[in-house]
Amino acid sequence: MSTVLAIETSCDETAVAIVRDSGQRSLDRRQILSNVVSSQIQIHQAYGGVVPEVASRHHVEMINWAIQQALQQAGIGWEAIDGVAATCAPGLVGALLVGLTAAKTLAMLHQKPLLGIHHLEGHIYASYLSEPQLEPPFLCLLVSGGHTSLIHVKDCGVYEPLGQTRDDAAGEAFDKVARLLKLDYPGGPVIDRLAQQGNPDAFVLPEGKVSLPQGGFHPYDSSFSGLKTAMLRLVQSLPADELPVADLAASFQAAVAKALTKRTIACALDYGLSTIAVGGGVAANSGLRSHLEQAATAQGLRVLFPPLKFCTDNAAMIACAAADHLNRGHRSPFTVGVQSRLPLTAVMQLYQPAVASSPISENSSATLIASGNLS
Ligand code: KG4
Ligand code: ZN
């Protein structure tokens, strides 16, 4: 059994959560003791997107408050915490640094093991929070502002990426098309709302196929740049003062939903994976939900959409991943750093073998300082 306090600051949410994992297969295996999220969306809205320096500064301002809130909500003290975790990759380096430095400081101060967590592994673990019976293997469709991936989840720390975007992430495409239509940031929820009043068949848009050198198309990879350009040309060809925004939004959303659904179903069938777990902010999209649910049901596949609070960035998913790692004896060295990019296949590089995990020594702070930028 492990109780972990985790910090997530990879982008524009300052989040801290405490999760307890019994490590036993049961419906009440994982308990969320607290889940605090302070969103910066309103701050970045003025710029039409996330400004990395502004994000880091706000993380610094909010982090202590969020940690205190998480402990208070959970109603426990440091004696009940078994480990401290933070997202360390991938993400905005300055933003990640705030969370990881706070986690290192707390782990050192309270003599607890430290765990650096891969952000995408956190998104995968979000599905375990809402589906206690979920066990690997399954297919995860991860669709967020920064990522679009199809991942074969084999075990804790064992992931095989099967498909990805060759250019923009799905959420990024929503945000860019929203900007083109002069809608607010983040664009996904706005387009989703407008699409419900529009006709998804109003405009014919490209699917965004990825060609293979030997001919044919990649069955699981996606591309959204062609779709984005098609939207730009379409908008330029229409009268600016009478833009059919709802129809444009509905047609765009349907094109994204169909492309993702086609690849996800093909991948699940080819790999014999009967469960599909969807994660990331775009999992909230009503078009994607209905297309994927329909197609999965028709093929006898199970599709899981966690509640929105676990789809968008949060620290409960990071704590959930960390508690599983901790139960398995995984520990990160205090020299673990932040990285803007890190493939999911490299997750286990964040941990040292359990036997080599040194207790936090007096030299730890020296190591921390000697590691300089902690990256
Ligand atoms: O997972 P997330 O909170 O942050 C990242 O890790 O990127 O995802 C944010 C992304 C944004 O691009 C946002 O526009 C998109 O998720 N999003 C949506 C919806 N809600 C959020 N996209 C489409 N439909 C939605 N309802
Ligand atoms: Zn995310």
Fold and architecture overview:
With 375 residues, this protein is α/β, with parallel strands linked by helices. It has two domains: 2-125 and 312-366, 2-Layer Sandwich (Nucleotidyltransferase, domain 5); 135-308, ATPase, nucleotide binding domain (Nucleotidyltransferase, domain 5, 2-Layer Sandwich), CATH 3.30.420. The chain is built from twelve helices and ten strands. It has helices at residues 41-45, 52-74, 93-109, 119-130, 170-180, 187-195, 225-237, 245-270, 286-298, 308-311, 316-327, 364-370; strands spanning 2-8, 13-21, 30-39, 83-89, 114-118, 138-143, 148-155, 158-164, 275-279, 302-304. The strands form two sheets. The chain has a five-stranded mixed beta sheet, with helices on both faces. Strands 8-7-6-9-10 form a five-stranded mixed beta sheet, sandwiched between helices. β6 (138-143) and β7 form a beta hairpin. Bound molecules: 5'-O-[(R)-(carboxyoxy)(hydroxy)phosphoryl]adenosine and zinc ion (ZN). Residues 11, 144-146, 171-172, 174-175, 186-189, 192, 280-282, 284-285, 312-313 line the site of 5'-O-[(R)-(carboxyoxy)(hydroxy)phosphoryl]adenosine (KG4).
Provide a short characterization of the protein structure.
By secondary structure, this protein is of the alpha/beta class. Helix content is 41%, strand content 18%. The chain folds into two domains: 2-125 and 312-366, ATPase, nucleotide binding domain (Nucleotidyltransferase, domain 5, 2-Layer Sandwich); 135-308, ATPase, nucleotide binding domain (Nucleotidyltransferase, domain 5, 2-Layer Sandwich).
